[in-house]
Amino acid sequence: MVLSAVVVASALKGAIGLVGTGLWLVPLLIAGLSYYRYDQLDPESRPIDRRPLHPEYDFIVIGGGSAGAVVASRLSEIKEWKVLLLEAGPDENEITDVPSLAAYLQLTKLDWKYKTEPTGKSCLAMINGRCNWPRGKVLGGSSTLNYMLYVRGNRQDYDHWEALGNNGWGYDQALYYFKKSEDNRNPYLGKSPYHATGGYLTVQESPWRTPLVVAFVQAGVELGYENRDINGEYQTGFMIAQGTIRRGGRCSTAKAFLRPVRLRDNLHTAMNAHVTKILIEPVSRRAVGVEFYRDGRRQIVRARKEVILSAGAINSPQLLMLSGVGPKDHLRHVGIPVLKDAPVGDNLQDHVGMAGLTFLVDKPVAIVQDRFQAAPVTMNYVANGRGPMTTLGGVEGYAFINTKYANESGLYPDIQVHMAPASLSSDAGVQVRRILGITDEVYDAVFRPITNRDAWTLMPLLLRPKSRGTVRLRSSNPFHGPIVDANYFDEPEDIAKLVEGTKIAVRISEAKVFKQFGSRLHRLKIPGCRHLKFASDAYWECHIRHITMTIYHPVGTAKMGPPDDPGAVVDDRLRVYGIHGLRVIDASIMPTICSGNTNAPVIMIGEKGADLIKEDWLEPPRR
């Protein structure tokens, strides 16, 4: 199927705008689009960008991301309910659909482009000491921007939430909602009691992999860990990564939950609709509507029943504070009338990790950009849904391991390791260094000398940090990005655990199975750490503080907790304390961060949150 010249020209313009300096990708994309018009054959076509909107709906969902798309889809199952989904960004496009291009979506119009505040304790190798914090500004949210890894966390995470006083949030209930979403297409998991088929969300392994990830899993076995389903009965172990992909393409929550229901009359979706305020009646303290800007014009839509805030762990607290719900002293400082004094924006947590731990190999087994030939790679992807373009943003495997600080049971690992068959310089410094924000001095000293060399990477990350950060308003202007203080390594134990995780990662690389590739540690020192002995604890700590990496998992800024918890913003039914008709359903509500990539847990939260709403509005009132 050949596209018209107009469509090809449009696609070329869009591709150039998105990938910036990564122009080597354009021939791949245009060739693919010319050969195969995916949208015309996709059984679920794109959601409808509704115009005009009704003046009133039963439910208004703010944010069409990992949770919001789920909530809107599930609420619209009740035919009598009119549901409006407001998303600040546009729809997905051809590039978002390609799993291997995840890094090329960051710092584009599909990204909120947040940065952390400099603290002098982390991100030292980044420009101005600030780490980039990408967040999806697109239908599907960060599920359209992320690396698609499907990880649920540890059963003890959810049992801990329940023990904190959050009834109904234990592992058994969480598992029910994980399975409700899931359509797992890996045959070896077909009969597992921990997985399901037939749900909206497709989960499977990438159909393409390098020999390095097979060696990675075998190395784990050498070290005494099991090759196991880390989403099953036990988490500790090594696994080839599973991801949210379908037919070789990304399966975002927009594709999974919105496209199949796009023709429901009671579900309206408005894109490029930037919400600026939740309208709350000051006397009754009830959320009655939403203010947003679309097409350069201020608009208001009313909610008959509830407003549901699903804008994510950065934007949800920002919107609550802009609407008068937040720390009273801070709100007064920026000139916002206080409707409810609440610890909004506190309790910020993230999976901080270490980037740049690189291993060189002598065989052509890694992902090296210049090696791939455009035509055959693209044809294999668009025709068969196979080949290197199906890799999960470059991540092929993960492990959950125990340091000396971990729980003695061995069942509650404290470090996760991501494995990628590439390095920070595998793309010749075009994009990866840019999205991390690494300075020229560090890149030129450590990574430029191995440009286009075969290499692989391990990225250890801390599963349950003790440090807590904050989100605060920069001003009362809703178009000013908030102040994000990640506060990495405020607690000394956090970096001590990560140093131990790094040493275990090096031991993984030294396993016998890697000898066949001539694998060895890349030993060029980071400029700011040259005074330290390479591979000593002090050196690894210096490396971590310099090449600090977010794994894109901010949570916790509208904490769920019982009424006597002074840090709680929402109750265990996700209702905002002190404000009627307003819930938060997204990563913000996590009291403590789950042990693993957060996308699957946020989808679970969306599923459970939608059911809580149905229970409250459809079941007889509780006595």
UniProtKB/TrEMBL annotation:
Single GO molecular function: oxidoreductase activity, acting on CH-OH group of donors
Entry keyword Transmembrane helix: yes
Top-rank taxon: Eukaryota
Family matches, as SUPFAM superfamilies: FAD-linked reductases, C-terminal domain, FAD/NAD(P)-binding domain
PROSITE patterns per record: GMC_OXRED_1 (PS00623), GMC_OXRED_2 (PS00624)
Keyword Transmembrane helix: yes
Protein name, UniProt field: Gld_6 protein
Lineage of the organism: Eukaryota, Metazoa, Ecdysozoa, Arthropoda, Hexapoda
Gene that encodes the chain: Gld_6
